[in-house]
Request: fold
Amino acid sequence: MIEIRGVRKQFGNIEILKGIDLDVNKGELLCLLGASGSGKSTLLQCINALEPIQGGHIKVDGIDVHDRKTDLNKLRQKLGIVFQQFNAFPHLTALENVALAPRLVGGKSRREARELAVKHLEHVGLAGKADLLPSRLSGGQQQRLAIARALAMQPTYMLFDEVTSALDPELVGEVLDTMRMLRKEGMTMVVVTHDIAFARNSSDRVAFLHAGTVAEIGTVGQVLGQPSSEHTKKFLRREHQ
Ligand SMILES: Nc1ncnc2c1ncn2[C@@H]1O[C@H](COP(=O)(O)OP(=O)(O)O)[C@@H](O)[C@H]1O
Ligand SMILES: [Mg+2]
Reply:
């Protein structure tokens, strides 16, 4: 599991995360909601050791993310991350993009990496696109390629940061479907999203972040059905307008 305790994060003099406590349990899909600027992306980056913290701790399967002795390569192999914008290598095919990290970071042979790539492209429904350059793929296909690339490292956890926000509306569904498929397969996922409908029908729990704190966390029914925090209520009201 991922254990987040009292995490404080500053950029310069400004405290962005003000003591975050949060657990992510094995096999669950936890949605992180919250207004823009509430600290959602920063929190994901702290989990993935892309950002240092100034207080508290984060443990991933018992490994302290910010302990100087932690092997970051090993830690990051546990954590697949997908962003709003996927920066695929433009000169590499879809298959080569997926095979790259298993070979360079995961120590797989060329053949093993290729087999992994084939498997994960198939998994996200891109088997027929293996030999195309990323520029030949639609936005939705590019995001599924990003998911395949993360999965090829055989992570225990997947972190998603607004992965559908930059997509044309008609391409959103295929990416959300891919995430739902992973949930069904038992992947543990943290999903930052503005998509209340997705949070409602596809997550196990929802956490609502407000100004660097967890204003509320609970089941979908609790947080989205009967929110107790004024911040959550206000956020949900706005979504209905
Ligand atoms: N690298 C950075 N340097 C300084 N401030 C940052 C940096 N990244 C994020 N911030 C600030 O931290 C706050 C939270 O940002 P972010 O985590 O991106 O919020 P969210 O993802 O919820 O929209 C914002 O006020 C943002 O301006
Ligand atoms: Mg963000």
Residues 11, 16, 34, 36-42 surround adenosine-5'-diphosphate (ligand 1) (CB under 6 Å). The two ends are 37 Å apart (CA to CA). The chain has one domain: 2-240.
